[in-house]
Amino acid sequence: MALTIGVDIGGTKIAAGTVDPEGRILRRAKAPTPRGDGEELAEAVAGLVRELREGEDTAPAAVGVGTAGFVDETRSRIVLAGNLGLADDPVRDRIARRVDLPVVVENDANAAAWAEFRFGAGRGCRDAVVVTLGTGVGGALIVDGELRRGRFGAAGEIGHYRMVPFGRRCACGNQGCWEQYASGSALVAEARALAAAEPKEAARLLEAAGGDPEGIEGPEVTRAAQEGDPAALRCFAAVGEWVGQGLADLAAILDPERFVVGGGVSAAGEILLEPARQAYARAVTGRATRRLADIRQAELGGEPAGIIGAADLALR
Amino acid sequence: MALTIGVDIGGTKIAAGTVDPEGRILRRAKAPTPRGDGEELAEAVAGLVRELREGEDTAPAAVGVGTAGFVDETRSRIVLAGNLGLADDPVRDRIARRVDLPVVVENDANAAAWAEFRFGAGRGCRDAVVVTLGTGVGGALIVDGELRRGRFGAAGEIGHYRMVPFGRRCACGNQGCWEQYASGSALVAEARALAAAEPKEAARLLEAAGGDPEGIEGPEVTRAAQEGDPAALRCFAAVGEWVGQGLADLAAILDPERFVVGGGVSAAGEILLEPARQAYARAVTGRATRRLADIRQAELGGEPAGIIGAADLALR
Amino acid sequence: MALTIGVDIGGTKIAAGTVDPEGRILRRAKAPTPRGDGEELAEAVAGLVRELREGEDTAPAAVGVGTAGFVDETRSRIVLAGNLGLADDPVRDRIARRVDLPVVVENDANAAAWAEFRFGAGRGCRDAVVVTLGTGVGGALIVDGELRRGRFGAAGEIGHYRMVPFGRRCACGNQGCWEQYASGSALVAEARALAAAEPKEAARLLEAAGGDPEGIEGPEVTRAAQEGDPAALRCFAAVGEWVGQGLADLAAILDPERFVVGGGVSAAGEILLEPARQAYARAVTGRATRRLADIRQAELGGEPAGIIGAADLALR
Amino acid sequence: MALTIGVDIGGTKIAAGTVDPEGRILRRAKAPTPRGDGEELAEAVAGLVRELREGEDTAPAAVGVGTAGFVDETRSRIVLAGNLGLADDPVRDRIARRVDLPVVVENDANAAAWAEFRFGAGRGCRDAVVVTLGTGVGGALIVDGELRRGRFGAAGEIGHYRMVPFGRRCACGNQGCWEQYASGSALVAEARALAAAEPKEAARLLEAAGGDPEGIEGPEVTRAAQEGDPAALRCFAAVGEWVGQGLADLAAILDPERFVVGGGVSAAGEILLEPARQAYARAVTGRATRRLADIRQAELGGEPAGIIGAADLALR
After folding, report:
1. Is residue B287 pLDDT above 90, yes or no?
2. Worst-scoring range by mean pLDDT, A85-89, B311-315, C4-8, C286-290?
3. What is D28-64 written as a DSSP string?
4. Same domain, A109 and A48
5. Domain co-membership, A103 together with A67
6. According to a count of CB atoms within 10 Å of the terminal CB, is the N or C end of chain D lower?
7. Which domain range does residue D262 map to?
8. What are phi and psi of A161, to 5 degrees?
9. Rounded CA gap, B15 and A135, in Å?
10. Are residues B175 and B282 part of one domain?
11. Is A1 a residue whose pLDDT tops 70?
12. What residues in chain D have their Cβ under 8 A from chain A's Cβ atoms?
């Protein structure tokens, strides 16, 4: 049985685990993330690998590393990772030199998406798009059973196709990007705007935020929606509709069998997915005759998914 | 040297040819398209195959058929082809039974796009999107060197992702589809609207149309633009900008190395492509650091491309 | 008691009536509209005035004429009236010469709106906007109790402010005009698009149109909605929402006390007005604290309103 | 010669002046604005009035007060003035009691706009819209020679009609308000976004801001544009286009003879107005035949305009 080690390098901590071919994590380890020094980072990763191998007879087949930031198309360098304080860093070779095992590097979102595809809500299909609704909107494209990265490693930046001409400004410098409408930040902005414009309707959300619209945060919106608060449900309906429209656009282009929706906002489950499905069914081109893709909630949590996906990608 | 036969079934005629592995058409034949009868259609195709084999010693390796309409994901049936008068037709088996050769069926737009990828403006790269700007906007996705059809055979309907919320109505039943802004029809609509609103500025276009804005047609807009008419150039600039924006959206999702732009509107060449490139460079996410995809004009004409692409796909 | 004569010049017929100061029509007359000849048109109007005066002892105080087309700011000339076949026609003097009475000319939409303001759904307020939802969207502004025509006589072209950047094309040459979303034509377009994209949902509408989406017409959509057909109600909800948004925009600019909604689409009454009111209440700026304007259905029919309004304006 | 006293109550200071019938300020006085206490505020105003009357034989005819915040339709109370810390304050009576003269209260933006209309860039016409492009976008409607306030005193909130469906979020709780595109804040946001997305192009703007896009401020953008910096000019072109589109929308509704454009952004003069005029001419409905309204830069500075306008309104 070929075991591999998966590593998830995040902005504050590195999580690693030994993973079996069925995607189960057998053993785990973690360490804080060193910032701004590629050698230290590689050493921290190598330390976790050593820790996981302690007492094991058999060497793992490979080490898969999912990292924050943008990875180049050869998957050996970090091009830019703002929250790691790194740019143009030869991360793969730095680690390989230390662990004496094959090392595969991948963007962390891709790694987590791959885990969903292989062992989570995407299993059993060959064409899927994994959409992660967090602060922004990220995505991973699986086409004919493979993760596709595009020519320059930047495929799946689905949060930055333009949804609305002259729409809300995005940190990427553009306007109207999908992630300004369908992300966790969008949910919060929706709730705050509602509270500012219609304080009576948003009384519960406002109360939880001490009366200040700007104090409203995502988890409270989710909680309120789960307890049936009409204002919170209205916010989820609005965001869900944008999610569904975006999936319809992706379906026109990619025609996948399934969409897997993960990230913080997806924790609300059907409260988000049901309006998304309805919007999707009303918006997708050719809807009278086409078979509609499934829209499912992600099943694995973020950190385990990152470890599992990185580990599994290391075998391919 | 393995020769194959490529067939392009259009609404009015069927064009066929013997094609060599370098994508050259060695011999051609054509026949009118029978309407509304799958058996007659298959017989017409078989007749062309026989005609092309006449006097040849060696049998072709296979027959590739590109057909108008929507082909199912098993590539054996025409799901719906309005202008052939066919629905749910087992076209592959009907032809195979008659020619006693392997038969491969593909959507005609995909076939032509594949020819561009293999032997035209797309050669030499592994990730490309071929965009066809005709009456509508069609597309074909080449990812990691393969034509990708999506789970249900409908990938590449890029003309029907939503560009503008509440935008212009599309025949598909939606609003704001990209093809309402970036197609040949959009170019004509732009010219007609300009002529209606600013007849002086559009004097030349109006004159060529006998004074009636609704009489303006695409070829005249192209001709006027080529001769420097400011109104026609303004129309191309507008459409080109929409083309560029759409390519930027596709780049965010797919990150291809190259875009190949074909179809009737692309005959204007740089008059269209230059504003498209500028809009692309201003609109693509991450433009400060990313490598920009090439945007090139298609090189093969429509009909030869259909024959060549179908022939080449038959070998895969 | 000062009686006046009101005349409504439409594309096919001229309707005239003797009107008392309370806006009641005491006597009526009509004639076909001569096309393309200002003298004949004036003679036809004069003939109706003579007919109405027959047997009356007292001369009317004045003649008010509401006419199709665009009237200049001095209200003496028709600048352009396509469906009368007239341009730059000195209509007031032509008529005045014949009837030997003071003649006042007004655009017919303004005249009808004025009647609504004085004797219909607008009575009792000083600041109102009368919105006419017909083939297009027309409007009349009443500010501080007076009909306001703008500096060049073109105020109230509210159907042509831009609702959607790059939106649906308008006959005026622009894109995204309000009338492309909130008019009777918009209602029909909505129903046709729905029938094309979701034939099952629109079964009733399709059936009434013999199965062809393009055969669906406005009165049938209204009838179906009145009988509870969900597809038709969905169309009215969509159009009503656009109506409400437009009124919210007008409120931001003009802050009237009341909106009076007339024209063919308004015949559906609350089926249209209720979604309009809801959209208005959700969209108007400052909605948490501002007093919301009334939104009421027009009370007078089109032709009588035209006669009554023209007659009343003649006294001012 | 009837002199009046005009008072401009701003967030930090109160400016007052004695004004003659030609709109000249003969004498001036100022004081800091007391916050949060209506009586203190009235006393401060009364103190300035006394100071201005000192040594004058003749009493002024009236006192006109322009104040920040929202004034009710009877023009006697401040409904809400956030930056004065006042709500529902009977400001007119508080002042009148102290100065023993007729007192007229008006919103400060309306007062300044009125001055422009009477003595500045709007003089000589009867129908004008004064547009103030500051942090937000404000406006004042002059129809048939009178300032129009709407039924509830809120007319002219032109910055809050919706320009873009689902557009940029506005502090008013809505999305896509005009002021998010055409204000000084919009200019700054444009410059910052440009600097973030295309740092090379925006090198000069970035340099002046110490390299941080978020450090870019309006005056520097204006200065850079005046010195020909292409990036700054691009920002003004973008904002100017939105200004022109908005004026075109207002023209469709109100058809004024003239637009007077004031506020901080307008200091750039033709750099802003020329793209605005071009966009206006391309966007206004009926542009092939209609007479285009003038678009002129405001002539009076903000504070004098506030004093002069308030003083002049006091006489009406």
Report:
1. no
2. C286-290
3. EEEEEPP-S-HHHHHHHHHHHHHHHHTT-SSPPS-EE
4. yes
5. yes
6. N
7. 124-298
8. -85, 155
9. 53
10. yes
11. no
12. 163-169, 171-176, 181, 189, 193-194, 196-198
d(CA D284, CA D130): 18
Cα–Cα distance for residue pair C21/C5, rounded to 1 Å = 11
Average pLDDT over residues C187-197: 93
Q: Are residues A143 and A289 in the same domain?
A: yes
Q: Do B150 and A255 touch (CB under 8 A)?
A: yes
Residues in chain A within 8 Å Cβ distance of C197 = 287-288
CB within 8 Å: C288 and A165: no
Is there a contact between D287 and D247 (Cβ–Cβ < 8 Å)?
no
The shortest CB-CB distance from A167 to any of D164, D171, D172 is to: D164
Return d(Cα D206, Cα D192) in angstroms, integer: 9
CB D244 within 8 Å of CB D275: yes
Q: Which residues fall within 8 angstroms of residue C11, CB to CB, at 6 or more apart? A: C33, C68, C83, C84
- Chain C environment of A198 (Cβ under 8 Å): 287-288
Instruction: Tell me the mean pLDDT in the region D152-180.
Output: 94
Asked if A164's CB is within 8 angstroms of D167's CB, the reply is: yes
pLDDT band per the 50, 70, 90 thresholds, residue D173: confident
Name residues whose C-beta falls within 8 Å of residue B205's C-beta, 6 or more positions apart in sequence.
Answer: B191, B194, B195, B216, B220, B221, B224, B229, B231, B232
Q: What is the CA radius of gyration of chain B?
A: 20
CA distance B43 to D115: 85
**D290 — pLDDT class (breaks 50, 70, 90):** confident
Q: What is the DSSP letter of A145?
A: T
The distance in angstroms from the start CA to the end CA of chain D is 15
pLDDT band at D1 (very low <50, low <70, confident <90, very high): low
Please compute Rg for chain D using Cα positions. Answer: 20
- Provide the β-strand partners of residue D15: D8, D30
Q: Which residue has the tokens 């894109």?
A: C175
Task: Let me know if B212 is exposed, middle or buried by CB neighbors in 10 A (0-12, 13-18, 19+).
Answer: exposed
**Do D140 and D112 belong together in one domain?**
no
Give, in order, the Cα–Cα distances in Å from D105 to each of A143, A274, D311: 68, 53, 10
- pLDDT of C1 above 80: no
Same domain, A153 and A215: yes
Question: Do C151 and D256 make contact, defined as CB atoms within 8 angstroms?
Answer: yes
Q: What is the pLDDT of residues A203-257, one digit of tens each?
A: 999 999 999 999 999 999 999 999 999 999 999 999 999 999 999 999 999 999 9
CB-based contact A186:D175 (threshold 8 Å): no
A-chain residue closest to B73, CA distance: A255
Q: What is the CATH number of the domain that holds B193?
A: 3.30.420.40
**CB-nearest partner of B193 from C163, C169, C196:** C169
Length of chain D: 316
CB-CB: which of D166, D200, D287 is closest to B198? D287
**Alpha carbon distance C83, C67 (integer Å):** 11
Q: Which helix (H) or strand (E) holds C312?
A: helix C302-313
The two tokens of residue D121 are 């860039």
CA B237 centroid distance within chain:
21
Yes or no, beta carbons of D153 and C249 under 8 Å apart: no
* Residue A130 sits in the same domain as residue A112: no
Looking at A72-86, A108-122, B88-102, which range is the least confident one?
A72-86
Task: Please give the Cα distance from D108 to D305 (Å, whole number).
Answer: 9
Q: Return the residue in D73, D110, D131, D285 with the most chain C beta carbons within 10 A, the one to mutate for interface testing.
A: D285
Q: Please indicate, yes or no, whether residues C163 and C276 belong to a single structural domain of this protein.
A: yes
Residue D175 CA to residue D164 CA, distance in Å, equals 8
Structurally, chain C folds into a number of domains equal to 2
